[in-house]
């Protein structure tokens, strides 16, 4: 829904390293289609910025009817790495056009019938019916390539989060080899509420530099969330 903002705090091996958020900002008209404008940001704190500053801003525009991306923008600053790019998705022609704002390069990528970007994939998943333990398949666009991806969904269980309560959740693990947002290599697990909200409460990732976690702020969790077992 427009106005939803999910704020997270990140930790590296238990040490606070930054914060970020996902926000459904508005409904816009884009390429003749109504679209949700979703913004994701990630920022390192003072400690991490001293040796590896992170300033990432990503925009995804989702078709209201199909929940497929129409446009994807990435403005990434991680250490010495820089990326400024815009990707437009022509689903009728099955072509994505990548444009680098740094060097002006242009590339066309052939699209499958269904595809998601790194941000739209979360909202696509939140709209899928869950039938217990199962595997969902999707095609994921990132870094000028399409990656067939499997999402392994484990049976619901109770997850206790410090100062937030206990929630009925499912564990979701993507099975694919791709460069991800903030995390370059490793495994990722997301813990999502087992209700219609599908709130991503916790994300864990293994990286070459140790475990990273992102936990949803308590202010982003509705008091009336059906999956909340106790306060």
What do you see in this structure?
The chain is mainly β and 231 residues long. The two termini are 25 Å apart. Helices cover 5% and strands 58% of the residues. The protein contains two helices and 16 strands.
Instruction: Catalogue the unreliable spans.
Output: 180-184
Number of strands: 16
Give the count of helical stretches. Answer: 2
Radius of gyration: 18 Å
Structural class: mainly beta
In this structure, how is the largest beta sheet organized? 16 strands, antiparallel
Secondary-structure blueprint:
Elements: E1 5-12, E2 15-30, E3 33-44, H1 46-49, E4 54-63, E5 69-78, E6 81-90, E7 95-100, E8 106-110, H2 120-126, E9 134-142, E10 145-153, E11 157-161, E12 165-175, E13 188-193, E14 200-207, E15 210-216, E16 228-230
Antiparallel strand pairs: 1-2, 1-15, 2-3, 3-4, 4-5, 5-6, 6-7, 7-8, 9-10, 10-12, 11-12, 12-13, 12-16, 13-14, 14-15
Summarize it.
By secondary structure, the chain is mainly beta. The protein has helices at 46-49, 120-126, and strands spanning 5-12, 15-30, 33-44, 54-63, 69-78, 81-90, 95-100, 106-110, 134-142, 145-153, 157-161, 165-175, 188-193, 200-207, 210-216, 228-230.
List its traits.
16-stranded antiparallel sheet, 58% strand
